[in-house]
TrEMBL record:
Gene3D superfamilies per the UniProt record, alphabetical: Extracellular Endonuclease, subunit A
Enzyme Commission number(s) of this protein: 3.1.30.-
Transmembrane segments: 12-35
Sites where the protein binds Mg(2+): N175
PROSITE patterns to which the protein is assigned, alphabetical: NUCLEASE_NON_SPEC (PS01070)
Cofactor(s) needed for function: Mg(2+)
Protein name: Endonuclease
Family designation: Belongs to the DNA/RNA non-specific endonuclease family.
Keywords for this protein: Endonuclease, Hydrolase, Magnesium, Membrane, Metal-binding, Nuclease, Transmembrane, Transmembrane helix
Active site, renumbered: H144 (proton acceptor)
Domain ENPP1-3/EXOG-like endonuclease/phosphodiesterase residue range list: 83-275
Leading EC class: hydrolase
Sequence ranges assigned to domain DNA/RNA non-specific endonuclease/pyrophosphatase/phosphodiesterase in this UniProt record: 82-275
Amino acid sequence: MAKKKRKKKKSINWSVRFLWIFFWITILLLFAYYFRLEIKSALSTFSTKIERLGEANRKPDIRYKNLELPLPLEDRAEQIIKHEGYTVSYNKNWRLPNWVAYELTRDELRGTVSRTDKFVVDPYVNGVSATNADYRRSGFDRGHMAPAADMTWSETAMKESFYFSNMCPQNPGLNRGAWKDLEESIRKWVKKDSAIAIVCGPLVDKRDTTIGRNEVKIPHAFFKVIVSPYVTTPRGIGFVFKNEKEDAPLSAYVVSIDSVEALTGMDFFSELPDELENRLESQNNIFDWEL
């Protein structure tokens, strides 16, 4: 009888073990099923986010025509001259541009045309123009507004970049310092962003003196405003430089485009939708431009 009892107890122990094993296998299967559902849901959510991100990162198909051109000026002399590589608003009273505007593209930076260094009077200017004689022994550089290095894509554009309508008397320390640094930075941004619209020019007032027989105004400062409108998140930035030796980091000269409009009385980038224009022109975020 004792042996039979021991066998029964052993049989009961195995039944209990089997039930526990079955229980834990069931629990594990339920957890596995639950986590499978969670992973599937998470992957679905992640996939949706990736699709939305792809849509957000897609560059807009829209292209702005003449985005770089400011609105017409009513408070000063202005002659609009369209050249191959840039457009100039010429001020016959100052013998200077009010502004010079152009769009620079990544493809244009692949040009191989050599610099000419032949400074000449713009044949399309009505009225008096600066000449080489005005700059001679003045202590000022013939400072490009639209730089020759941005015009290597066309022999005509390169030639026209040396017109005096594209020049201003510029302190050598500025022309060869911070102004040049900004020009080089713009080319880097264009390579990254594909296209950038640029407007630049002098800041002039009645107190500013002149050089040469033709009384070419010496600007007390210069501005440059830039927008990159064709990237995922369009951005804008402005710069103001005193007409003196400037070699601080470019971040020291950053301002908003709105503030440049207040200084110049000009209206930039009006082709942009109002909401986008207002947003870009209020920005002065140096980190967006890696400055």
